[in-house]
Known about the structure:
Blueprint: H1 11-37, H2 41-61, H3 69-93
Helix pairs in contact: 1-2, 1-3, 2-3
Amino acid sequence: MAGGDLPPLARAQKLWAAAAAALFLIAIGFLGFALSTRVMIAFAVGWVILQIFGFVGAVKVAKGDFAHPLFKAQVMLHVVALGLLAAVMVRVLF
């Protein structure tokens, strides 16, 4: 950046950014699992694409603030998707 250093992130911003990164890594891991086992490929690919467009759009609207309510809503949306995935896995395994 030509103007100098960026301001440091607040604790809440770091927390929400880390949560988003963890969810994205879980989605990428599930995509690898889905491709190797040929199970739920459409969900895995769609979830990764939804995360990419959702997080980029939310950060763009929030002007880079990871603690913005829109970004928090995106994170919680993907937490719900992870919960639904866990429910499907539990249903299949038990």
